[in-house]
Amino acid sequence: MTTLVAFLLGVTLMGLALLAFQGMRRRITSRYKNVDAVSRVLQLSVQEAPIGITVIDHNEDINLCNYRAQDMGVVHNQMLHQEIRPLVKQCFTDRETRICDFTPIKKRLRVTSVRAIIQPLVLNDDCFVIIYSTDESENVRMEAARRDFVANVSHELKTPVGGVALLTEALLEGTDDREHVEYFATLIHKEALRLGEMITELISLSKLQGAEALPDMQPVLVDDIVSDAVNRNKVAADAAEIVLTRKNKSGAMVMGDRLLLVTAVSNLISNAINYSPAKMPVIVATEVIEDTVHIQVRDQGIGIAPKYQERVFERFFRVDKARSRSTGGTGLGLAIVKHVTANHDGEVTLYSELSKGATFTMKLPIYRGMQ
């Protein structure tokens, strides 16, 4: 009897131990699963990070490198970029953070400039180097554009200011000659007007390129915009012997800033007049195509070569600089057209052939009220 009791007790204890072991195994398995899940999440987070992440061990082997780091050329063919390698060595030696700006060996996804932050990472007495990399291409492009803009503004302002100074000197030399005074005073006045117009357009362009929404947006009839723009240019067209013709009426409305839209269309018409021979027509037409209204300004002037067509909307770009100076152009008119159109969720296009004229088209979304 005692033996049986002992046997049953032993079986019971073994059963309890087995249950405890199974419970412990389930808990351990669950923890391993949780750790594995966290590990996968961390790995996925690193791989999908919007910045490049690269980890180097003390043997200078690449332990980890995500997709963005490869796209930006930090690692290429399992090798660190040549400008980063010596900085990694120095980082292991003195454990100081370093910054490196470089150009990828193989440019991908239009990445032309990369900034790498190289810093030490100590874990359990082991030293690693982690490299964070960011695509600086757009920042570099914007900085270059800013420098070009400042240089262009300086040059463009210098021309009329210098002209006024020279004309004033010439005027002072002949103050007793009325015709002499009137001639140079007229030229000074012309240069002063050009300078004032340029400053006004620079201010307008600066506002258009700001991040804030246009303040005076309201429903506007496109036909009224075109009529105002045509009327603004009638005197200039008559003086240049240009036949300014209005065709079609769309009846469409757009949500926009009336003054800015009139200015944009007026700039296109003025541009067409300036680059058209005498007696030639400039046609302004409107057309509704699906959910957009097209405002077209067509001329039969000198046309624009294909190599220049991508650049005509740049600030201060001129195809014919001599003609632009003679007409008093600032080089900002088409840039303003581009930004006004963009601020109204539209686009402006150009079709042109040399010696056959040019057609500029502003495409704006139609406003249909509360429909």
TrEMBL record:
Domain named Histidine kinase: residues: 152-368
Enzyme class, broadest EC rank: transferase
EC number: 2.7.13.3
UniProt-recorded name of the protein: Sensor-like histidine kinase SenX3
Organism: Corynebacterium kutscheri
SUPFAM superfamilies xrefs: ATPase domain of HSP90 chaperone/DNA topoisomerase II/histidine kinase (SSF55874), Homodimeric domain of signal transducing histidine kinase (SSF47384)
Organism superkingdom: Bacteria
Signal peptide span: none
Pfam families xref list: HATPase_c, HisKA
Keywords: Kinase, Phosphoprotein, Transferase, Two-component regulatory system
Molecular function per GO: phosphoprotein phosphatase activity; phosphorelay sensor kinase activity
UniProt KW Transmembrane keyword: no
Biological processes per GO annotation: cellular response to phosphate starvation
Record has Phosphoprotein as a keyword: yes
Reactions accelerated catalytically: ATP + protein L-histidine = ADP + protein N-phospho-L-histidine
Compartment(s): Cell membrane
Family annotation (Gene3D superfamilies): 1.10.287.130, Histidine kinase-like ATPase, C-terminal domain (3.30.565.10)
GO CC annotations on file: plasma membrane
